[in-house]
Amino acid sequence: MALPDTVPYIDWRWDDLVFLVLAGVMLGAALLVVLGRDIIRSGLWLVLSFAGLAGIYALLGTPLLAVTQVLVYIGAISVLILFAIMITQSKTGPGALVFNRQWWAGLIASAIIVVLLLMSVMLTDFPLAGTELIPAEARDIARLLFDEYLFAFEVVGVLLLAAVIGGLYLAVKDDDMPETNVQPGPGTGEARDT
Amino acid sequence: MGIFSAEGAEHAIGHADEGVQTLLLLLLVLPLAGFLLTGIFGRRMGKRPWIIAVAAILAATAIATYLAFQSLSGEYGEHGIGFTLYTWIPAGDFHVDVGFFLDNLTALLLIVVTWIGSLVHIYSIGYMSHDPGKWRFFAYLNLFMLSMLLLVITDSYLVLFGAWELVGLSSYLLIGFWYTKRAPALASKKAFLVNRVADHGFLIGIIGVWVLTGTLNIQDSFEPFLDADLLARDAVALLLFVGAAGKSAQFPFHVWLPDAMEGPTPVSALIHAATMVNAGVYFIARTSPLFASAPEALITVAAIGTFTALLASTIALTQKDIKRVLAYSTLSQLGYMFAALGVGAFTAAIFHLMAHGFTKGLLFLGSGSVIHAVHDEQDMNRMGALWNRIRWTHWTFLIGALSLAGIPLFAGFFSKDAVLGESFILGFGWVFIIGLGVAGLTGFYMFRLMGKTFYGENHVDPEVDPKVHESPPSMVAPLVLLAIPTIFLGLVIGTPLGDSVIFNWLEPVFHPAEELLHITLHEYQLFGIDGSLILASVAVAALGIGVAIWLFGLFNGRGRPETVVAQTERNRVTRFLYTASYNKWWFDDLNHLIFYRFGGAVANGIMWFDVKIIDGIVNGIASVTQSSGEGVRHIQTGRVQNYALGIAIGLIVMAIVFVLLAR
Amino acid sequence: MSQSLEAYLALSAMLFGIGMFGFLARRNAIAMLMSIEIMLNAVNLTIIAFGAFTPGLAEQASTIALFVIAVAAGEATVGLAIVIAIYRNRRTPLVDEYASMRE
Hints:
By secondary structure, chain A is an all-alpha fold.
């Protein structure tokens, strides 16, 4: 069964609807990341936000990037973040404040920056931009990567290697330090001052 | 043809040869060496620290006498000789030479300064013999001689000002010689401060001379000065007179001289009778062409001089300290000199300067002898009947008193008559009348002093009485030596009347000034107007003396003390006059009110302003800086998020600016 | 709407703002890192959006975005390792309480 040309009941195009839904999910999830009290929940909302973004990449005609986003961001970075959250859990839990003392200033500054950005976006003509979506073929991307940008590609590889080594070095447990791996939950018995 | 000879004044002034140059410089070097050596080594010289100082002065006296006689006998020409030692300040247009100049006027001053100076030094050997600080005294005396000699031989306004200040300094050091006591310390400070105030006028006047004439050499400044306009000349002359009035204690700067009596008596004799106070008179005489070209200033000089003469003599009538009477008498006689200068009788002024110098020097040293005899008592009410017991002192003192009162044929008679006579002849009747009155008062207060000190009943403190004795020869000898010119100076220099020796000596010096004032010689009429003037002044003086003798006694006569009391108490007017005179007409209190209270209030107000506002501003800037620093410190929180917020804010600001600019 | 460049750019602007707020306001260091990731994502979206609507830029935009993702991954690694190291020392992940650079 083929999809009707526009969404039933509301006369929108499918693309627009999908875009709106994905945008809403992404923004909402990001908001919850930032505002959430429980940091593990924040991490999970972050995953959702990444997923939404992957969808938008797909909508924009770059399926390669969408998949990369899922693989790297959700599959690696988010996992890494969640692990780190587990390791650095402290007993302060619900009692601690979420925001610091300058949150209102941050709010205002962010709002102003958003407004400025929106203004500059809306008020600028982009003469080169059409209204046609141009998909990016994977073949073309690959050609660029291994041809023009080969050097950058290799350098990024070295960079990632350096990051891994650095991360290992920094995070390796000293034997003098007591293991701080405590599962979240009530009654584990260790009082810890933070 | 101008006032000055056709070739110009400098041309007429001879150039001093090498020998004279050396002698002039020695005049300065000798007392300087005496001052330095006695000052540095004096403490270790034991019993006789005066040796170097006295030797230096005696040598300087010999040189000065030689130079003076050479000049007066005409060896150096009519217009004197001079030379320039070196250029002190060569600064383009501004050009100050250190020059020296010797003519008859300087010669006469050299004689007065050095002769009286050496006699005072010798007198001090005896007078200060018990004082542990006498080495300091002789050092200071030499310093003073240096400054005074420099003052009379220099040809530069600036060097003269330097010597002027140096004289003031020596006076300060010597008045406050017993600085551990309160009264001398205060008196020396007062003398210095009053002089300093007057010296400001002097300095501005010197600057005015330079502005008007472009030179700071005295002789060179006469001719260009005439080209300035009258107002400028009057102003400059008045300012210079302010300085002279300060040094010579004329009204309103007279207040320091009586207080200066706190110094040792030789100091009073030397500085405050015979030399330093004459500096003002000398200066005006030296720059007579300047003053002659500013008649309004000259009238002011005469007026102030006359007023001071009158004021001081009224105060002398009631004082009970023997040195105070002499101090006020000095003020009064200085007033005569300024009056003479003011009417244009320059020669008479200098003549009176010389005669008064010797006379007053004699009187002060004599009073020192009296004080020494009654063991440091200076209140005349506790003396009396001393004439028999300290004969040398008494007879020389009597000679001085007669001379000061103007009795013929002593020196004071000739000089005072010259002053009064000239003022009348030159048309200043008011000066003559007031001067005549002052002459009468002079006679009166001098013989009041004689009566209370030497005659009448013995009021000496009974404990001191048996110890009254004549002074040692080192003190009596100068008295005798001073009595000689006191008697004979007039006869030698002041005759023949109408064409006297001193007049001939000083005629070339004052000729330019006299021409400017259109003064012409007049025929001397001994049995005419001039003789009557003499008669008048002698009569008035005799009257004053007579009344004083009647009231205060002579030799063994006791006078009428009851009458004195009765007359002063007679009615409210006389009581008031007595009180006014005794309190010096309340000038010191007036000064205290104006300068200490009112001036103090002003000073306090300014201090408030300085502390609160100016310091407040400075401290305020400092504290603003400090507190803003402390405030800004809080930006460095050490927290990354705060810094990130800062970045965000900066970004916003830049964006806004960019957007606004893009419009 | 989905065919307009402005929409995507607006979306990314809002995402960026959310991320920035999170970075400035959260106390937990890991939350700050998550906010950084959100901001990076927003920037990536901007790049891709431009590439999608501008002829000739599509592949290059994707390439750039790929690099950004790679570098972001490296950065997240190192950042989290640092946070863990600090946590071991100070026992707290709250940046407010890292006070040695104060005063």
